[in-house]
Every structure is written in structure tokens, then in C-alpha cells.
Amino acid sequence: MTDKIRVCVIGAGPSGCCSLRQLTAECDKFEAIAYERNLVPGGIWAYTDRTGTDETGLPVHSAMYNNLKINIPKEIQEFPGFPYPKEWKKSYITRQQCLQYINDFIDHFNIRKNIKTHTYVRDVSPIEIPGSKKVKWNVVISDTRKLDEVKTEIFDSVFVCIGHDWNEYIPNIPGMEDFKGKIMHSRNYRHAELFEGLDVAILGVHFTGEDVSMQIAKHARKVYACHDRTDFPPSFPKHIEQHPSFMRMTKNGVVFPDGTEVKVDVVLFCTGYRYSYPFLKNDIIQINDERITPIYKHMIHIKYPSLIFFNIPRQLTYFPHFNEMAKFAVRIIDGRAKLPTEDEMLKDSEDDYQSRLKDGMKPRYAHYMGLNNLQWHFNTDIAKMGNFPPLPPVLRKLWDDALDERQMNITHSNEFNYEIMGEDSYKILNPEGSKSRVSLATA
Ligand SMILES: Cc1cc2nc3c(=O)[nH]c(=O)nc-3n(C[C@H](O)[C@H](O)[C@H](O)COP(=O)(O)OP(=O)(O)OC[C@H]3O[C@@H](n4cnc5c(N)ncnc54)[C@H](O)[C@@H]3O)c2cc1C
Ligand SMILES: NC(=O)c1ccc[n+]([C@@H]2O[C@H](COP(=O)([O-])OP(=O)(O)OC[C@H]3O[C@@H](n4cnc5c(N)ncnc54)[C@H](OP(=O)(O)O)[C@@H]3O)[C@@H](O)[C@H]2O)c1
Question: Whose CA is nearest to atom 5 of ligand 2?
């Protein structure tokens, strides 16, 4: 028996690895293991050509596609205190480099020994302790090579690090069942070359839809990018036809709201992902139009504060935030950070939601952080409660500027390289690629 706090981390992607880094840094206090269903750690960044099911029969986790570069400069996609190799001058690195960086992180912090791969978490349930408000956690796992066998382990705390970009959302479009062409979701997109000579309608054009439609347009005969966004990048290439979202499909194609029908070979849904926790029963959390309750600060289960989620906030600079979330989480479970009462936490969560609605955000954006500086407020809040410094302001500056740059110059903004100069400033290393040449770059 050990009197250390036993923590089960579910998933060894970037958030699981940040959790292990913080937990193992205080190994006198914590005993940590990450269960990872894949053969290797890395999460989504562990690319595979496979789609559908993997070699164990489970759905493939990674929605990463072959020709992918990160979509924010690496200088703001860095785990704090662990810089990228100096010789990597480019800011927008490839998916392969990102995976290497995660593996370097794992080795640098010596946490590979804490990762149990081939291990699928099937069920997580609280065990009430008579006379105590605290619970322990019953975690049921299987070796993915022997899925019919299960094993149970008991933990003091569970960190849910399963990501949120794997449970694809496909809207129900009338006429879909009659369509004779190919229907797919971007989670199964890997290679643009497969669209050679085809006519393709893409529904939902955000980060994935923007990138994938530009990739596919190099091969397809025609790409229709269909969306309802009011903030669409004006710099989006003109040869990709934009349309409002189609509401109907037919045997041969899609029908736009003005009644025009176009024939297409493929309908590709880039409509994003939905939260899902297959190992948690419905009485633990509820998900209502993408709002997860009862959760405090988008992380902490209000009834069971030893159950901590890393995959709830969306659209933020994930890597630095994961590290800070992990710092906060370890301080919650060992009691260094004090939580308000249950009622106060419920009120805080409701106030946060209502203030989003008041600001005009859609109800399903309950955990979006990409607007109104929400990610930085989130960070300040948890840093204050955890009594550690918040992320430096330069991250916000570079996030704002890089996203502006992308908006104005979507086809070339990832050619710009940056260097962080200090807590508050950065510089562009190749200023000839700055905003002043936007019109040239997008022509
Ligand atoms: C196509 C695409 C491109 C992206 N590009 C960027 C980018 O450029 N920059 C950026 O910051 N973010 C990007 N993202 C977002 C991405 O989600 C994050 O970068 C990051 O990978 C999230 O880390 P995570 O650890 O929370 O989740 P994940 O990376 O999804 O890792 C979760 C891990 O949990 C494991 N797991 C899941 N369920 C179980 C279970 N039941 N039992 C055991 N293990 C389990 C999975 O196998 C996986 O290894 C992209 C996402 C997609 C889909
Ligand atoms: N490195 C890269 O280049 C890269 C590439 C791809 C993805 N990513 C990352 O992957 C993550 C997921 O991005 P994503 O673009 O797949 O998902 P996303 O950001 O959730 O975008 C999905 C889009 O589909 C729209 N949509 C949903 N249902 C629709 C419907 N019925 N009709 C029309 N539009 C609909 C959504 O609109 P609403 O907003 O109104 O819901 C949204 O604009 C992000 O973190 C992103 O940064 C990175």
C-alpha cells in the first residue's frame, strides 16, 4: 500500500503528457499512470493512414491528415519550459515535427515509463467512502489485444485526457440517404490526391474545411465550400466557389438555399466533433447541446472534484494551456488550491454560460475559448486559484496577430516565422512576409 495520491490519466496525447509531467515532478506525492489505447503516445499527432477501425478493432482515434502543418506558430504551441529545437527555424511545423516534439517532451521528462499503451479504459465509476465526501475511482481497463478480458484498478483521482476531435458530427441532411456518391467526414480524410478530377461539396468551413478545401482544390475538378460563417476569411482563394450551407441532398448532388442544384461526386462533412465520454455513465456528467455539466472552470467535476477534464475547452492554444491546466489539477487534488463550495461552483459555471449567451455566442459554444479573450481569462482564473503565474502576455499578442494574419492572408500566412523576444514581445523573422504584402500574397 502507498499513501501517495494515485492518479489515472486517460490518454497520452499532449494533455495526458502534460499531466504526467506535473504529476511525476512531485513523485513523492503522486503515483501516476496514463492508460493509452494506441500503440504509441502522441494522441491525434500519431498519424495513421488507416481510417475506420484500427488493428485492434477499435475506431481509429487520430483524425490527422497527411499533408498537415500546425495552424498557429509553434512559438505559441509550445509546452512551457520545453522549447522546440533551435534549428527548427520555421514557425509552422509539419505534423511529423510536432509528433517528434511530443516524443522529445516525453523522453526529456522521463514519463514514457508512466505510459501504458495498448490499454483501453472502458469504465470509470466513483466508489463512495462511507463518512467521507471524497470518493475513490474504479477504473476498468482492457488490453486492446485482448478486448474480451477486463481488469480493474482503483485510483484517488482521474484525469480525462482523451481529446475532443474524434467523435465526428455529421448533421442529418434531408435526402442524404438517396445520394449515390460518396459521403465522408473529415476525420477520415488523409490524402487530397484521392479527389483527382472529382466534384466535391464541403459542408462546414472552419479550420478543417478551410485547409482541406484548399488542399483538395489542387486535384478536384470543382470544390464547393458551403458554410454560414459571417467571419469568413476574405482572403480565401476565389477559385473555390463559396455557397451558403446546403440544406438538402439529392441522388446526384446538393441543393443550395436558392434552389440551385449542383452535381457532385463527394460530400465531405467538415462539421467538427462532439464531446463524448463512453466510459462515464450519464449520472456523472450531462451533455446538452455541447454544454457539459456539472463542471467548474471547464475542468473540475463539481460533485467529484477528483475527476478532472482536460478536453473541455475548445479553440485555444492547447499546448501551453494543457501545462497550466495540469499545474492547476495537481494543486486541486492535493488540496493546495482551494475550491469554492458546490453551490458557488454551480453558480460560477451558470454565470459563465449566461454571460456567453449575453455576448451573442451560440449555446453550443459553452466551452469555446477562441473569442473575446476567453482563453486568457480562463488561464488567469486557474493560475490565481493555483497560486502560480499566468501565461505571459506575449502568447496572447502572437495568437491575436497570427490569427489576424491568417484571416487576411490565408494562403500564405504560414510562411511567416516568429521569435519570442520576452514575456511581452515577439518579432517576425522574415518581415518581408508581413501584413504589408498581404494583397500580393493572396493574389
Ligand atoms: C486534423 C486536426 C489538426 C489539428 N491541428 C492542430 C494544430 O495545428 N494545433 C493545435 O494546437 N491543435 C490542433 N488540433 C487539436 C488537437 O486536438 C490538439 O492539438 C491536441 O492533440 C489535443 O490533445 P489531447 O491530449 O487533449 O487529445 P488527443 O491528441 O486527441 O489525445 C487523446 C489520447 O487519448 C487516447 N484515448 C482516447 N480514449 C481512450 C480510452 N478510452 N482509453 C485509453 N486511451 C484513450 C487516444 O488514443 C489519444 O492518444 C488538431 C486537431 C485535428 C483533428
Ligand atoms: N493544423 C491545421 O491546419 C488544422 C486543420 C484542421 C483542423 N485543425 C484543428 O482541429 C480542430 C477541429 O476543427 P474543425 O474545423 O474540424 O471543427 P470546428 O472548428 O468545430 O468547425 C466545424 C465547422 O462546421 C460548422 N458546422 C457544423 N454543423 C454545420 C451544419 N449543419 N451546417 C453548416 N456548418 C456546420 C461549424 O459551425 P458552428 O461554428 O456554427 O458550429 C464550424 O464552422 C480545431 O482545433 C482546429 O484548430 C487544425
Answer: 208
